Amino acid sequence: MMKKFLFLVLNGWMAFTLSAQSPDLLYVKGMAELLKGNLDNAIISLTDAIDHNNSDERYYLNRADAFLKLGKFSQALDDYEEANSILPGCGDLGIARTYAATGDKKNAFQYLTSHLRSGFRLPESALTKDPTLDPLKQTDEWLALWQQEWYDDFDKAKAEVEYLTRKKTPEMALDYLNPLMPAFQTKAEYFALRADLYMMEENYAAAVADYSMALTLDKSEPEYYFNRGTAFLRSEKFKNASDDFSKGLRLEPARFAFYLERARAYAGLSDYKAAVSDAEFYLGYFPEDQQAVSLCGELNYQNEDYINALKCFNRNLRSDPNNPDYYKARGKTYLKTKTYTYAISDLSMALDLKPDDGETYLYLGLAKYETGNKEEACSDLQKAQRFGNTLALKYSIEYCGK
Predict the structure, then answer these.
(1) What is the span of the domain harbouring residue 193?
(2) Count: domains in the chain
(3) pTM to 2 decimal places
């Protein structure tokens, strides 16, 4: 019986270990290190990911980027070329950047030209502003390169939309883009581009419709799921939002911001366990992100897990002891745990730092009322109303008779 138990435990441990060492999680860890600028650590994790799965071009492309930033040019070239062998053309720009950094202008222009002929080409504005290509920009070859026509009609339309949204308004960009629909109705990018404009105008229903059309034409683009999920979230359609964020993260698990967005969607569904799990997953990679710590604290608070909420708010106050919102958050949590003296202390400190916050006066009034200090409680509830907190009126009537 004991042997059977040990066998089951060992198998469970092995399954957990394999799961914890999955290439996607190693890739996620590597990308987090890359975003934080920890290039050597990024290379270690991405190398581990490649050892588990050597057929994903993303692993090679991102390790190559880290090598390039470290000035390890031969390793960068090897990785970009390996990525190209998996998905032809995806590494051409990286190869051009690497040759530019080494002073090999001939090969740099060769691969930059190849990039411009590919489906991966970046907009002209992005390439002309790319600092890694600076060694090429004061040459005759650079001028000759841009004398050629690299971009199709849709590329030009995107450039015009970018200009109009930067210099004018989303409405003007829509007026330009809408008549072009018959020419581009089979392009997923057209509908995604128009949906982006609807998002700027906060027309979320129209944005959802266009992102849905984009996904009908191309289900492999994670950005469409993330963007439609954001539109659903802002429309308070939390189940649709969480589903889209999950689909996007399955395609691209290193889009870290969307773990927090999915946490907000789960919270909208009152699934606080899942919401906290996503926030904690994110914080496992970015523990210094105070906004994420605040979100995690608020999710625990909503889940009535006040101990863990207090841990989050304490953590933020250690990092930023002069932030009134952190004192308010901890104060309202102490109020829930009936530690009224601590609540009053924190809420008073919050008001010292931000004296016109009606919500803080509300919580302070409630805490003082619970300690039997009705006069000051009613005064604070009146101040809460004066500073625009509508909920304070209910408590003023109930506790103070006015």
Answers:
(1) 152-255
(2) 1
(3) 0.90
